[in-house]
Each structure stands twice: as structure tokens, then as C-alpha cells.
Amino acid sequence: MTRLRSWLASANAPDVEFPIQNLPYGVFDDGRGARLGVAIGDRVLDLARVDHGLAPGLLAEPSWNAAMEAGPSVWESLRTRLTELLSNEDHELVVAPHLVSLDSVELKLPFKVSEYTDFYASRHHAFNVGSMFRGLENALPPNWLSIPIGYNGRASSVVVSGAQVVRPWGQIKSPDDALPRFAPSARFDFELELGAVVGQSSSGMVSVAEADAMIFGYVLLNDWSARDIQAWEYQPLGPFQSKATATTISPWIVPKAALEPFRRPTPVRERPLLPYLREPFPTLYDISLEVALAPADRDETVISRTNYAEMYYSAAQQLAHHTTSGCPMRAGDLLGSGTISGPAPDSRGSLLELSESGSAPLTLGTGEARSFLEDGDRVTLRGCAEGDGYRVGFGACSGVLAPAGPLPDWASD
Ligand code: MN
Known about the structure:
It is a single chain. With 413 residues, the chain is an alpha+beta fold. The chain has two domains: 9-108, Fumarylacetoacetase, N-terminal domain (SH3 type barrels, Roll), CATH 2.30.30.230; 116-411, Alpha-Beta Complex (Fumarylacetoacetate hydrolase, domain 2), CATH 3.90.850.10. Helix content is 16%, strand content 27%. The protein has nine helices and 27 strands. The strands form seven sheets. Strands 6, 7, 8, 13, 14, 16, 17 and 22 form an eight-stranded mixed sheet that branches. Strands 9, 20, 21, 25, 26 and 27 form a six-stranded mixed sheet that branches. The chain has a five-stranded antiparallel sheet with strand order 4-3-2-1-5, with no helix packed on it. The N and C termini lie far apart (71 Å). The protein binds manganese (II) ion. Residues 118, 191, 193, 223, 336, 338-339 line the site of manganese (II) ion (MN).
């Protein structure tokens, strides 16, 4: 079978992130105001100026929330229409004037994040971190193989790729019984994750199949984490200020429909799951992921490579579990997968793991050593699913760490 091609030449290059098979949803500003767009090749299609076939109100605001709320049949008809407009040469004359160069636009948060929940769902990550925080015997909590562990995070601190992240101050444990210190985090870290964007609301429990149908698409997600603050605060209620500084997401929502060819089953269970968590069909995806770290004004080094198919729980399972309490979900809910770590040492999704809690610093290609992030470091996440003759990419999820601000007078001794 020959693969579908676009009349836009740049969309057919073998290594392009945004071929006709992808068509991810974003919000862009070319200096004339923020608008909805779809990435294709090296361009963005301006949805304010083409006949997309939907009710005008659904795409009027510069966020995808209204279109998400309209539901899966609308998602499907929009995708069908966009595929037709960008593949059939009969439309080229009318559509081509509304393609804007990606180089010339600023990308915004693609949707209003209504809520944010983050999980802890990679077997390797949970074991690695648990053994550092609690010792080898207690590495995996007894509930972990039965329940998708998560915490309710902050929607207010979710930012788009490119936004600056400022090193946080926080309360940090001192040796022995001395008073804790209030200081800039010295163990600031990234977490490589995939974010599921919930496109439909719910009330009451939903099944894993229903949860899967509620997901609109996926983004890359960096859950910035202050490990020294986390280690002191996390018991007994889990992370709080250590995870509240910022969460960076990639600017394009890759439609779930674009990822259908890449579905993979969750792994063989070490303990049977309760019936409500069993997947009726494969709910993970084969998505290659990597993390690159670049010191200020220096070249980047890829420091980790892994795959989303390594997860123990999928977003659909996490979402189904999230509703067991009766917790209502909303369009615009963001679910962080949890840090994605593979079995190999160079497939770990955080510096905490890569540097073995700082005891084995990484050496970058520039010759510099890293245990945790230094001021000026740029962290970039990338992801793609490899199809037959094409790839579905996510666009970069990038952020630079700025130095901590000054301490206010009233917080000093
Ligand atoms: Mn996380």
C-alpha cells in the first residue's frame, strides 16, 4: 500500500515530524493574534482562514477546549476534512495561501488546562526512585502493582515549550535534628513524561475502553522536580511544592487517531489487576522518546532514550482509575504518565536516576559533568512514532532553567 502524501512537498520528507498522517493541533501567533492551527510539514495551517467544515464557534477561541468538548465524532470529521484539504491537489490553490511558516510563529499553550494529575507508572522508575528514597527492600510500595499511583497537581503552573523555568526556593532537610534550611533547590531535575489530554467530561465511573475514547491526544511533558524539597516533604501525603514550580508541555497535541497504528499492550502483570483496570485492547503506544541537555550556549547531548511502551499503566487505565471515586473529569484535564524509564541505565527518564542520586555524575559531550541541573541548562524532550515511510513527531518540549530569584526580606533571619 502506498502511503498517503500531501501536495505540500515538505510534508513528505521521510524525517519530517508533521506528515499528513499526523496533523497535530496547536495555537500559534504570527503577530496578528493567537489562532488555532494544524502543523503540516514545515508550515502551520491557519484554521481561522480555511473552510474546515465545523461550526464556526468550535474553532473561534485560541484554545482547543471547545472542539474537544464537541466530542469524538467532531474530532473525526475535522481530521477527515483536514486530510482531504492537505492531500487532494484540487484544494492546493485555495489552501496554500493559509499556510504559515513554522519558523515565523510563536506557539502558545494549545488548550486551557482545567486540571492536572501526575502519575507514577513506570516499573523501572518506581523501583529506581523507591530504592533511593526508601532502600532496596522497600523500593516498590506494596500497592504499586495494583493501583495507578498519582497526585493532584497544579494546572496553574503548566507552561508551553520555550517558557522560562525559575529554580525554586524551598524547605530542605538538614543533617540530623538541625532545623531545615530555606534555600534554592540544589537538586533540580526534569522528568520525561507523556501527557494525555482528556477531551471529554465524565461523571461517575468509566471503563478503560470509555476512558480511552475520552482521550483527545497526547503531548510531551516535563514534570520539573526539586528532589531535595521532595525528599523532605513527600511523606505522608506525596509531592507538593517540589512539583509545583512548572510543568512544560510540547506545543502540539498529537491526535489519538494519528497514534492508532502504534498501539501496544501493557506488559504481563506481576499480580492480576482488578477487573476495572484490565485493558480490553492495547492502550499503550510505541513512541520513541529522548532527553537532551544543553549547558548555556553549548551544544546539547542526548542523555536518555526510552519508549512509552515501557509503562506499566496506560493513560486509559489511569483515567479509569481516576473516576472510581466519582471524581468528575473535564475537557482540558491533563494526565502526566509518570516518569518513563526503561530497563537500561541510559534509558532512565530523570537525572535522579541517571546520576544515581548524584553519586555517578553524567559526562556531557561538552566535557561538563551533571548530577542535577545547573542554571542556564536547556532540557529538551523529543518523541516520535515510526511508521512505514513516515514518522509521527511531537515537536520539541524545551525549557531553560533560570537562576533562583532573591529571597524576600521577610523570609530571611
Ligand atoms: Mn512526574
